[in-house]
Amino acid sequence: MDARLNFLAAPTAGRALKHMMSAGKALKESPLPTATQELVALRVSQINGCAVCVDMHTKDAAAAGETSVRLNLVAAWREATVFTEAERAALALAEEGTRVADAAGGVSDEVWTHAAKHYDDEQLVALVFLISFMNLANRMNIITRQPAGAYQPGQFH
C-alpha cells in the first residue's frame, strides 16, 4: 500500500508536524507513567483502526519493557487481570474519549471520577491531551493511508 501523501515532502505539513512533535515530547515528559501512555495510545489506535500507530506504540512499549501478555490483552482489557486499577481507569477514559460520537453524553461522570481517583490534575491533563493527540494522529494516518510495519522503536523520538 502506498501513502496518499508524503507528509515529509510538504512544507505546510513540515511546519505543522514540528508543533505536533513538540506536543508529543511534552506529553512524553509529563508525570503520566510511560506504561500508561503507551497502553492508552495503543488502545485509542486499536479503536480507530490506525495500523501505523498500533505498530508504533506496540513496538515502543515492548522496547520500554512492556510484556507481550499485556500488549496482547489491551484490546480486551476489561476481562484481563494484568492491568492495575489506575491503568484500567485510563483505558476507560481513552475509550470514552475516543468514542464520543457513539455516546450522546461523551465521557461519563463515572469514568471521569474513576480516573480522577487514580491520577492528579497534572496527570489528568496529560491523559486528556494524549487521548486527543492520538485521535488526531490516527485520523491523519488513516485519511492518507500511511502504511504500517516498518516502524523502528524510538524512530520519532
From TrEMBL:
It comes from Micromonospora matsumotoense. SUPFAM superfamilies: AhpD-like. GO terms for molecular function: peroxiredoxin activity. Transmembrane segments: none annotated. Signal peptide: none annotated. Keywords: Oxidoreductase, Peroxidase. Residues 16-96 form the Carboxymuconolactone decarboxylase-like domain. PANTHER family: 4-CARBOXYMUCONOLACTONE DECARBOXYLASE FAMILY PROTEIN (AFU_ORTHOLOGUE AFUA_6G11590), BLL7811 PROTEIN. This is Alkylhydroperoxidase AhpD family core domain-containing protein. The keyword Oxidoreductase applies. The lineage of its organism: Bacteria, Bacillati, Actinomycetota, Actinomycetes, Micromonosporales. Pfam families: CMD (PF02627).
